[in-house]
Amino acid sequence: MKKLIVLAFVAFAAVQSFAVGLGLRDAFIVGSLMGDADGNIGTGDAFTFEMLFPVNENFGIHTGAGIEYAIYDFDVDDYDNYHRYIMYVDMSIPVLARLNFTPGFFMDLGVNLGLNLTTLSWAEYGSRSTDAESIDEASGFNVDFAAGLGYVFKFGLGIDGRITYGLTNVFDLDNVDSNRFGIQIGLSYWFKQR
Asked: How far, rounded to the nearest angstrom, does the alpha carbon of residue 113 sit from its chain's CA centroid?
């Protein structure tokens, strides 16, 4: 853990020396698993350290790294009050092209790369619940298409909305077709703007 903190500090100091924008973003996620895992709803959160590499005043590369999680609730029709839950925790790496329409208003378009850290499943039936167990069949790497609009105020506060659509299966199973869909409502603060 100490090595990770030192590495993060060195990376932060290195990017400070370049002409990049630096910020933090937190987004509330509402979404679902689609395909064979249809019939569920999920909520979660994404917290990322953001970087913006401007090419000119109208275009830039928006990237970063952070943690994203979502918990999906599956109702089982045959049983009342029976729910199965799946939780994904990913290291999230957005790679987006940013188009600036005005000095504050922008559009992001690209992909979000997810490195799966853990995937857990558990069930609840009334007041009883099972222990969370790791899902071995979860894909270790996911790619989502991402598109969004937002606005950054002159003092650094930003708001945005983003849609993500999974381009890869979240399970490494031959007969299961399942990808993610999400809507993110984000709040960011850019402490170094470019």
From this structure: 8
